[in-house]
Write the structure tokens for this entry.
Amino acid sequence: MVQLGWIYGSITEDILTGFKMHCRGWRSIYCMPKLAAFKGSAPINLSDRLNQVLRWALGSVEIFFSRHSPLLYGYKGGNLKWLERFAYINTTIYPFTSLPLLAYCTLPAVCLLTGKFIMPPVSCYYCVAAD
């Protein structure tokens, strides 16, 4: 019996559906017709854009911690190539990259406000001895 259709139960059901289809052996191709096959809509202001990015991030984290995580799902009998698995893992871990980025962006401001430098002072024994 062939099962077709969307896999619901996730905010980002399109990623989950594509992942499960690839795990079941389906192959995808990039199709670029001369006439537009589909037309969609995009957010027109910053608030809508931020809400959309938040939805995508929450959906990716949800897939990462679910039983469909690309880290473990589909290894036994799965038909994913290693590059496909790597791409799906990248899709689900990208929200976590915001944590080191946030630290990287706020650390200089904290150092400037507190007057403390994050690196220890450099003292060069050879430089002092050469004088």
